Amino acid sequence: MNGPYLDFEKPIHELEKRINDLKELAGREGEDPLENLELSREIKSLEEKLDKLTREIYSKLSRWQRVQLARHPRRPCALDFISLMTTDFIELHGDRGFADDKAIVGGFARLDGKPILVVGQQKGKDTKQKLYRNFGMPHPEGYRKALRLMQLASRFGKPVVILVDTPGAFPGIGAEERGQAEAIARNLREMTRLQVPIIINIIGEGASGGALGIGLGDRVFMLENAWYSVISPEGCAAILWRDAAKAPEAAEALKLSAPDLMKLKVIDRIVPEPGGGAHRDPMKQAQILKDEILAALNELEALNPEELIERRIAKFRVMGQYLEK
User: Fold this and answer.
1) Rounded-to-integer distance, Cα 237 and Cα 279, Å
2) Alpha helix (H) residue ranges in 60-179
3) 38, pLDDT greater than 80
4) Strand (E) positions, 190-295?
5) What is the dihedral of CA 8, 253, 221, 180, to 10 degrees?
6) Which of the four pLDDT bands, split at 50, 70 and 90, describes residue 40?
């Protein structure tokens, strides 16, 4: 895999570079066959070592390292998953009230031939895309667009698949003036009433109400190296210690990783990532997620709308309950 590499990925990078150099040397014309045989043996040995090292590094990631992976520049975004998992995607635009928010994309598509609505937060990868997508931070019109599309899907009986990946709802003055909090609150209320299955997938970052604004559903799946919390580690560190550099400590305290949230019953399933993370094999990651979504849809489509709504509301009502002795 070509870079960029995170700090803890440097040993992997060094081995991969060495393997690529040897392959290039072995591929030159006119080389001695015996020398090529030796090179092939060394390449195989290094590839085995690379596989072992990759599994070792990614089996003991800290919470902060998972946050870094969720933000990896090469990590697949919503539109990547849509193109890899679905066919016949038709994007729909606008909230029919103010504007078309580029941070939220949505439209109808087919998932293994099954008609669905898919909505996702799109962050972009290079500087131009990130500016165009507002770094994946939706405005109120983005949440209103998402709700409009979800209500349209419900009207026609099509299941909804959500891809969550945002550092938070946009906190600008204009967004507040246009009702950011109200738009998110309305989505929470209306999503409980949708009469079709809703599958939530946290594919990268899941920060605060910005994620929850399209994050209420019948099943909540989370990629292995994604994170989901009431606040970003940097925001938490700035509030608690007045120092954003303490973000790694905040990440540990927030318990924002998939295993943490599985224990707390905030999510329903951890979706495994290919060795080394989703950014190393987006196609394989998309197939894994697609299989999970299809299995969940097959289960949920057996329920009638009243059962769906009742179970959905009960699922979120019990979150955060505890007993005092």
Assistant:
1) 27
2) 63-70, 78-85, 127-132, 140-155, 173-177
3) no
4) 198-207, 219-223, 227-229, 269-271
5) -110
6) confident
Please give the backbone phi and psi of residue 59, each rounded to the nearest 5 degrees, phi first: -85, -10
- 39 φ, ψ to 5°? -60, -40
Asked if 131 and 241 touch (Cβ cutoff 8 Å), the reply is no
> How is the chain split into domains, by residue range?
7-60, 67-317
302 vs 108, 118, 198, 218, 297, CA distance in Å? 21, 20, 13, 13, 9
Residue 138 has pLDDT above 80, yes or no: yes
pTM over 0.70? The answer is yes
Q: CA angle 188-208-318, nearest 5°? A: 55
pLDDT digits (tens, 9 = 90+) for 263-307: 999 999 999 999 878 998 999 999 999 999 999 999 999 999 999
- CATH architecture entry for 67-317: Alpha-Beta Complex (3.90)
Q: Any idea how long the chain is?
A: 325
Instruction: Give dist(CA 256, CA 245) in Å, integer.
Output: 18
* Residue 74: burial class (beta carbons within 10 Å; 0-12, 13-18, 19+): middle
